[in-house]
Structures are given as structure tokens and as C-alpha cells.
Amino acid sequence: MVVFSTFTTAVVAASLLNSALAHPGEQHDADHVKRELEVRDHYANHAARSLANCAGTVKARHLEQRAIARRHATAEKLRAKRGISSRPYFHRRDLTSLEAFETVNHNMTGSVSDPSTIFAANTSCIMTPEVTIGPYYVLGELVRSNLTETEPGIPIHLEFQFIDINTCAPVPSLLIDIWAANSTGSYSGVAATGQGGLNSTYMRGVQPTDSDGVAQFDTIFPGHYDGRATHNHVVAHVNASILSNGSYTGGSVAHIGQLFFDESLRSAVEATYPYSQNEAEVTSNDDDMWAPGQADNSYDPFPEFVYLTDDITDGLLMWISVGIDPTVNRNSNVSYAAYLAADGGHATGTTLGGGGNGTNSTVPSGAVPSGTAAPVKRGLGYNLKKLFAGSAARMH
């Protein structure tokens, strides 16, 4: 069976005073965090108003229909790849029923076989537009869809769809850059103590969006570390160039964000190996300094998901729609701890998360990726063909 759940939209109050962060460079004082949250909320509210005009249009309905079909096909493909026989889907109850139901038993589900029910959802809100990139961004990661390498953990197929808040059209030819900590809370690509090292690349990668604004990744569910809720970083690059060696260069950053995960799902993951070996204290979404101050129709940082079977270790399909303004340049909010070149990783000496007061590093001298670059062209004239039914257009 496939178990479906929509992440709760209950209030997740951000803690501005939590400074017990395990990773160097990720401490922020309360005033700095507050300023960045205010900027984030401004962007979110503006985008939500713009996207509200898209809901219910013929284009939006067509996009949702395509999304339902795509997600259903993806779930079936993932199940077939794992040798899972076709069985009825199971659908978690709607939010109102679920909230009352979960006080009794978190595991019960109601069965349903219609994919349009399982894979559909509203598309009227946006994911939280963060203004901090975190301390461990690595510039120039590889363009690839499978980020797992040899990392153990719960496999996830993660799908993003990006929608232009100005036109309600999907945004093709973005380069979507994601990274996260592994099951035991360690980041690849950086030299800081306890991390994977400059020449490691696990759980990092870049994918272009297709004509429907969709980018897809295979990775594992992230692990946690002290002081932060479980999360996944996302950056969207506009007009970047893909290099022949499998990396990219140039362009500008139009979005910086972070995905968060439902507490009940995270708990289910953490009960499995190797997550259960992680000795770092768990931080809830409520206690995370960057978790949204609330999850409502303005922004929602949680992706939708289905279990591929009733056993979580068989994997998850997750999806989220993201509303962005591709004309905005957020390069001033970007700093990176390292960059990936033809001869491996290079540290920059910068470990601060870029934000309103962030530093904008430049690549040090030395070897850089070589190859003939072809500009990634961005077009905005597409119909809303596949907006993820079931995620709201939200931001990372």
C-alpha cells in the first residue's frame, strides 16, 4: 500500500533565542534572525497575493491534472523499481479529521484507490522564502539527479515545481541546487570539523527544471544535528550555464530557501537505522530559529508525501510547488563555504550563512571547472501544465 500524508498547517513558532547550534558558522543573534524573518514574511505575503490570482484558472486546472498523472506514474515507477507489486493506495484523512484522529492513533489510514485524490492538492500558497543560505553552501556542484552515492538512509524521490508569481506560468530552465546533512547530521563538501570533507559530494546536486518547471532528485531523508530541525536547502539559479564537465557556472540566484518536514514523519524516520544512531539532540520545528513563524496560506515549508509501501524503509515520494519571482536577484544573500572545481573542493574561508548582513564571497584563484558552456535559457510563456497538485506553490 501507499500511505499519504499532508504536512500539518498548525502554527510553527520560530525560536529567536536558540543559539545552541552544532555546526560552526550557523549561529545568529536574535536581532539578526528577527530581521531576516521579517524580510522573509514580506516576500511570502507578496507572492501569496500574486499566486492567489492563479488559483481556479483553466491553466491551473490543466497544470494540476498533469501533476496528478505525473506523480501517480512516478510512484508506480518507484514501486516497480523496488519490486513492489501493485496494491491499493492508502490515503491519510483530511486535515480536520486528521487532527482529531491523531490524538488517538497516528498510524490509522483510510483506503482510497483514486490517484486524483492521493496526488491532488491546492496550489494557492508559497513555500517560505528564506533569506539565509546557511553556512555550508558549496558553489559549482554537479548536475545530477541521484545524490545518494553510498549514503544509507530512507530513500526519497523529491520533486520541485517552480511557478512564476508574476505570470502563473511554470519556470523552465532554472538550475535547482539542493543539499542536506546525511543520516547522522554531517554535510559533504566542507572542511569544518565533523563534516564530510572538501572532496565529498553526497546529498548535493543540481537539476534543470523542464518545460513544466519541474526538477526531480533521488536522495535520502536528511538527518538532524544540534540546534536545527531536520531540513533541506534549496537555491534556484536563473540564466546559469551548464558546463560540459557536468557542473555549471554564471547566472543569478532568484530563490534561497529551506524545506522542513512533518514531525510525525521525522519521528518515523528517526526510529530506523542509521538515523537511530544519531546522538545529537532533536530540535522540533517549533524550536528551530528558521522554521516559519506560522504555516498558513501565505507560506508552507512542508512537502507533500506518500509512502511507497506501509514500510517507511521502502522509501517516500515527496513533492512541493514553489512560487518565485524569477526577475529578482538575490546574489547579495549568497555566501559559500567552498566551491567544487575540476581538481576537487576548495575552501573559501567563509562559513557564515548569507542574509541581510551576509558576505558575498568570490571564488579564490585556482582551478575551476572547464568546458564549453551553453546558456540555460529561461522562458515564461508556457501554460500551467503540471503544477504539483498537492503542494501549494511554496518556497524552500
Number of self-contained structural domains: 1
Estimated helix fraction = 10-25%
What does the radius of gyration come to? 20 Å
- How many DSSP H or I helices? 5
Mean pLDDT: 71
| Main sheet: strands, sense, barrel | 7 strands, mixed
SSE sequence, one letter per element: EHHEHEHEEEEEEEEEHEEEEE
Low-confidence stretches: 1-22, 89-112, 352-396
Distance between the termini: 29 Å
Which fold name corresponds to the CATH topology? Protocatechuate 3,4-Dioxygenase, subunit A
Question: Which structural class do the helices and strands define?
Answer: alpha+beta
Q: What can you see in these coordinates?
A:
This protein is of the alpha+beta class and 396 residues long. It has a single domain (30-90, 113-347), classed as Protocatechuate 3,4-Dioxygenase, subunit A (Sandwich), CATH 2.60.130.10. Helices cover 17% and strands 21% of the residues. The chain contains five helices and 17 strands. The chain has helices at 30-52, 58-81, 95-102, 115-118, 263-270; strands at residues 2-5, 89-91, 110-111, 138-139, 155-164, 175-179, 204-208, 214-220, 231-238, 241-242, 248-249, 252-260, 304-307, 316-324, 338-341, 344-347, 374-375. It has a seven-stranded mixed β-sheet. Strand 15 and strand 16 (344-347) form a beta hairpin. The model is unreliable at 1-22, 89-112 and 352-396 (pLDDT under 50). GO terms for molecular function: ferric iron binding; oxidoreductase activity, acting on single donors with incorporation of molecular oxygen, incorporation of two atoms of oxygen. Residues 143-229 form the Intradiol ring-cleavage dioxygenases domain. It comes from Lophium mytilinum. Residues 351-372 are annotated as: Disordered. Residues 1-22 form the signal peptide.
